[in-house]
Amino acid sequence: MASLEHWVPAFVRRSALLSLLVLLAACKRVPSDDMNQRTITLRGRIPQTDTASVPGAIIAALGPADAVKVIMISGNQYEIRAVSNGAFSFPVPTDRVVSLVLVGPADEYLGFVSVRDAIPGVPVQAVDDGVSTIDLGTLVASGALIAPGVDPVGNGITLDDAEIEALSELGVVARAFLEDPDVDGDGVIDLLQGREFRLQIAALRNSSFAGLVGQPAAPVSVWQMGVNVVEDGVDTYPSSATVTGPAGSGIDALMVNSMAAGFGNILYGIPLPTPEVRPTPGMWTLTYGERTLLFQLADVSGLADIAPALEPTVVLHDDQTIERIDWVWRMADGSTSTAPASLASDVRVQVVAGAPAVRCPESNLTQFAPDNVYAMVLPPETVSHELACQDIPWSAVSSVELSYVDVFGSQHVFVAQRF
Ligand SMILES: [Ca+2]
After folding, report:
1. Which residues are paired to 400 by β-bridges?
2. Distance from the CA of 282 to the center of ligand 1, in angstroms?
3. Is the CB of residue 184 less than 8 Å from the CB of residue 229?
4. Distance of CA 284 from the midpoint of ligand 1 (Å)
5. d(CA 233, CA 237)
6. Which of these, 342, 316, 338, 343, lies nearest to 327 by C-alpha position?
7. Where do the domains of the chain lie?
8. DSSP H or E stretch at residue 339
9. Closest among 177, 111, 182, 203 to 148, alpha carbons compared
10. Which of 203, 289, 308, 344 is surrounded by the fewest CB atoms within 10 Å?
11. Distance between Cα 196 and ligand 1 center (Å)
12. What is the largest CA-CA distance in the chain?
């Protein structure tokens, strides 16, 4: 982790930043019967075409009607599924947005499914109780996008307007990936080559406590960016890479190091020269070994401006130790969401404290920052958490950190300082 030290400002190095971007496990193809979480069936039909039956017709560019395969992407899992008799039907996990890329007979990229021209995928994480199948009807080409023939929102999936807007913003990085899934530029969709290259974004916002109540978060103080690389059959990768950002990014042929490497993957961190400014939109390139990756980065401001924020309230015992931490999901319009599972795939509670507090052995987050005495990953619907260790004195606490990984994989961290 030495490389991390070079680019994390000292004021946050001691706490939350060590948890940023380290959630990235190796991406992998997972057979659906290995998916332990709840699944539903997702199905639909590709559009019909009549041009193929016209003798002498000029062969037009391929469209969604030519799809023979669908790539299903859910977080760091993906599967390649066949289109059969003009239709597809397969099980999908319901903890994240499921993205669908349509693929032609010679592995041509034909586009991706977008719901309401806003959400880059199907928001099955917001499926209604008791619903076991989402039927998208016959897909419709809509410019560069492919729209469901039946809007799943209102037909088995429930989202309100604030949630749809938030999901549209949270999907900014996923959308770019779906628009150009040949990041290494060799003309073949990377996932069909067993390669996954993902830009990763994290944002950290600070606030403070007024008494026991966390105040609204300030603007982002630290943006982090990294590129996660997975290639089938590759166990080890070069430990460094070279990054060039768009004009104005201040990054030109910069040597960067691996922040973390797992089983079959590597994460290259991209140190931003001005961490409080969001990564510059435009074309970023990262070269490692023989490969050069091209990422078109959109404006990610919405990941901070529109993404929901977490605001904690601490509840103490009479002896001033922490009994529990409650929180609300604050939407951009000031309302609170009562359905956080539609926005996030988990929520994390961390407590940074000095002596006499000691590390709680029940903590279940493997990546521990040095001063953390408590770190727990919880289901996203959790909004009140009774600490597994009831011996942390509030007077020893310097900050409470709530964070979540959104349903597209970006990480959002909220650090409430006690002093
Ligand atoms: Ca490729």
Report:
1. 351, 416
2. 20
3. no
4. 16
5. 11
6. 338
7. 2-25+193-302, 31-179, 304-417
8. none
9. 111
10. 289
11. 9
12. 86
Q: How many angstroms does the Cα of residue 358 sit away from the middle of ligand 1?
A: 48
Contact 138, 224 (CB under 8 A): no
| CA 353 to ligand 1 centroid distance, Å | 46
How many angstroms separate the alpha carbon of residue 183 from the centre of ligand 1? 6
Q: Could you report the per-residue pLDDT of 249-287, keeping only the tens digit for each?
A: 999 999 998 877 777 889 999 999 999 999 999 999 999
Query: What's phi and psi for 390, nearest 5 deg?
Result: -105, 30
Which pair of structure tokens corresponds to residue 328? 């609300």
Spatial distance between the Cα atoms of 139 and 147, rounded to a whole number of angstroms = 6
The CA angle 44-34-196, to the nearest 5 degrees, is: 70
- How far is Cα 385 from Cα 373, in angstroms, rounded to an integer? 15
Around ion ligand 1, residues with a beta carbon closer than 5 Å are 182, 184, 186, 188, 190
Residue 298 to residue 293: CA distance in whole angstroms: 16
| Å from CA of 190 to ligand 1 middle | 4
Count of CB atoms situated within 10 Å of the CB of 37:
10
Mean pLDDT, range 214-241, rounded to an integer: 93
Q: Measure the CA–CA gap between 331 and 327, rounded to whole angstroms.
A: 13
Number of H helices, E strands in the chain: 5, 25
Ligand 1 center from residue 344 Cα (angstroms)? 29
Return the residue matching tokens 């973390």. Answer: 260
Q: What is the pTM of this model?
A: 0.86
* DSSP secondary structure letter of residue 3: H
Q: Residue 17 has which token pair?
A: 């930043």
Q: Which tens digit of pLDDT belongs to each residue from 9-33?
A: 333 333 334 345 444 433 344 444 4
Locate 294 and state its tokens. 């091209």
Q: Is residue 105 helix, strand or coil?
A: coil
Q: Looking at residue 286, what is its pLDDT?
A: 98
